[in-house]
Amino acid sequence: MEKFETFEGIVCPLDRANVDTDAIIPKQFLKSIKRTGFGPNLFDEWRYLDVGEPGKDNSQRPLNPDFVLNDPRYRDASILLARENFGCGSSREHAPWALLDYGFRVIIAPSFADIFYNNCFKNGILPIVLPEETVDELFEKARGERPLKITVDLERQKLLLDHAREIAFEIDPFRKHCLLEGLDDIGLTLQHVDEIRAYEERRRQEAPWLFQDLRA
Question: How big, in percent rounded to 5, are the helix, strand and coil portions of the chain?
């Protein structure tokens, strides 16, 4: 998993509450477990005017001009601004996969659904919880004539708006450590690879019959 330290990006304002995971990545796209390739179908039912299906050429599909991701101002956005209870619904891990594959590394909202919130950290996305009045202010700024650019300093737990105002945010120390070091569950396990190998070798000596090839 890629390390997360200081990150700068344009903010895309998705002004919807209770966005569920089926809206983030619809169920027909859940057949793959590759973790990549889901970006073109992020928010598929809102983003396009036709019905999306796996294998469809998205470059030829009609775009919904009223959906925020299709606004030229936010075309290169990598920070998603949302309303309360973002990521509710089913626990599909494809939702953070789709957001990450599109290019979002940070999501800011007043609240998140618990499972989605946990899945974000496991996939290198930083979900930031801010007070509703602060989120309102960010929405107002993001809708301005020029895009709102935010620098996210995870080490200091600060957001820097247009190189001027700072906003502090809270994060669990362990999750912060994992993001800074680029450690997912597999990475955390591999930190103990020497102990694992030593245990396996000890078990091989203690109970060699467990390691016999039963096909022989």
Answer: 40, 20, 45
The answer to whether the CB of 107 falls within 8 A of the CB of 119 is no
Does pLDDT of 187 surpass 70? no
Token digits for 177? 């450590």
Instruction: Report yes or no on whether pTM surpasses 0.85.
Output: yes
From 139, 162, 29, select the one nearest 92 (Cα to Cα): 29
Backbone dihedral angles phi then psi of residue 204, each to the nearest 5 degrees: -65, -35
Which residue's structure tokens are 């309102």? Answer: 136
How far are the Cα atoms of 123, 155, 197, 205, 209 from residue 202, in angstroms, in the given order? 34, 40, 9, 5, 13
Residue 149 sits at the vertex; the CA angle it makes with 157 and 47, to the nearest 5 degrees, is 110
Q: State the pLDDT confidence band at 140, using cuts at 50, 70 and 90.
A: very high
Considering only the C-alpha atoms of the chain, give the largest distance between any 2 of them, rounded to a whole number of Å. 73
Place of tokens 């650019």: 149
Strand pairing class (79-81; 6-13): parallel
pLDDT at 61 over 60: yes
Position 119 scores a pLDDT of 95
Measured distance CA(16)–CA(66) in Å, rounded:
13
